[in-house]
């Protein structure tokens, strides 16, 4: 059994960022994962986070040193040698009081069997119990805010480097010699947050009654298939399950550890409403299924609770963020739901991990997320020192002010750069049909090329990234092994107004109105596109969209920038109602673990044509077949890759990225920066905080840094 698997100013600033990162401890995505090349560079001069004066901060940034804010990649480690496991156990005072009162079993009875514990060596020191972690969230659509902190409930996980698979909910795994069977070993004695045991039956219930029910999961998960052929889950014994596939699929272990439908954890997938994660609390969820009572009974239960039918009720009850009664395996459980102005969580008394001295984790008692009306409010509160740890929604453009105010706010600023190609990408609605004229244009490669060539990325970089991002396509950093090459970072992504205008003429948009905007080819007036932006999230999507709107005037393209709430925007993309939407392409550097921002293949979320994603995932039984032969070729390469060895996977990934960049189904702007969840504000009284943490979707940042080991210093 395995327990671990063996030329703008912006470019120069980014080069510093890259070299500084590599020198101080870069992410090394090993094995099948993209690897970062090593490089030598002198340690840059340090600008203390307590420096005063925005002028000093800006000067430091423009001097290409980024203030020394990119630290050494570090984090806690797992103890895998059972002989080193602790024999005595401690617990938080708030739980000890419940034990004394007779309201909770002793800690020894709440933890897994001694040899099945998850034991963590904290980064710096054994922590202290207590405290409430204060954070911001931006509303009901911001469930990833809590999901990512609580992603310990994944079957497997990545370590703090983002490169190594380690145990999580499962204590180990085994891959058969022929690669067709992946066996997962559960922790004996592990319990749900209500004290009920977690067993293989919770996995089988999920597979048979949730995942295999088309009323609940209408489209199968791509990662639960190999070459279009579905896998099955089988129970071996009470604490062992096996995933069996018709062909060799050793890479499935990575999907179990990644941010996938099967691998992201029960809580995360439940909050998204797509029922993934691989298991669920059968003893609780059964009451909402017709199979275990009757359809009339569960529908009455639904209507009494204000829902249309039992499926709608189940979706609500399945979400840990909305339903405080839901048993979970996460370190913290919801006490006040995300639908309220204060999303509150408190420790799970049955959490199944301890530190090296036997203290049950987490150290922190509670998490309180306070609603911020918008990102600006969240940033202002962070500047004022109102949050203990906040990386989500912190603006890179605010960095000078963060530095200026750090001493007064009693916090430290950390930068965690990412490796995906674009922090803001324009995802085209390739399956859009609402306006036949616009739909035809969107599906025309020359039109997409023209839009991309009409963007001044250097201007965007200076205005919104402080010049430290890398302008270019959606392709990942050239340091990663899936990169198609440095030329594909700039292909079709360098400002060229003459070529853009020529291409627009070529597609038939030759007529213009008195203001210089191009007219529709059907004679119905000005051509106006619609760009959906998401307010209150990460980077200023709307403001960036407005700048692109101004830039596109020079090529005669008019666009209406329409800001919407995230749930509404994603609802539009799910229904193929958008012409284009600005969102990140985070995670796409790990193409086989999070392709949804690179290709339309994931029916759980897709911004480039949900109808195509359903067609791909269902093997043609649902959705719409793409008409673009290059998209079909990319699909074939992607599907084929999961059965290949590492060299074959790399080759396919590089070819897929070449296709993606050539086709511009998603138009990149600026990326490879700390802008997307990489500006981390940490109060100075917090312990076990890494100088740098991996910033990657597959590692569920910040969860791979094990927030369960963070603590408040006395």
Overview of the structural elements:
Helix 15 (445-453) runs antiparallel to helix 18 (497-506) and helix 22 packs antiparallel against helix 23 (646-663). Mean pLDDT is 91; it is low at 3-65. The radius of gyration is 25 Å and the shape is globular. It is of the alpha+beta class. Strands 21-20-22-18-23 form a five-stranded mixed β-sheet. The chain has a four-stranded mixed β-sheet with strand order 3-15-13-12, with no helix packed on it. The chain folds into two domains: 77-280 and 318-370 and 683-712, Alpha-Beta Complex (Dipeptide-binding Protein, domain 1); 425-671, Dipeptide-binding Protein, domain 3. It has 23 helices and 27 strands.
The CATH architecture of the largest domain is: Alpha-Beta Complex
Q: Which range does the strand content fall in?
A: 15-25%
Identify low-pLDDT runs.
3-65
CATH class of the largest domain: Alpha Beta
| Number of separate domains | 2
- According to DSSP, the number of beta strands is 27
- Main β-sheet description: 5 strands, mixed
Compute the separation of the termini in Å: 41 Å
Sum this structure up briefly:
The protein has 714 residues and is an alpha+beta fold.
Q: What keywords describe this structure?
A:
714 residues; globular; Dipeptide-binding Protein, domain 1; disordered N terminus; 23 helices; 16% strand; alpha+beta; 2 domains; 4-stranded mixed beta sheet; single chain; 5-stranded mixed beta sheet; Dipeptide-binding Protein, domain 3; 27 strands
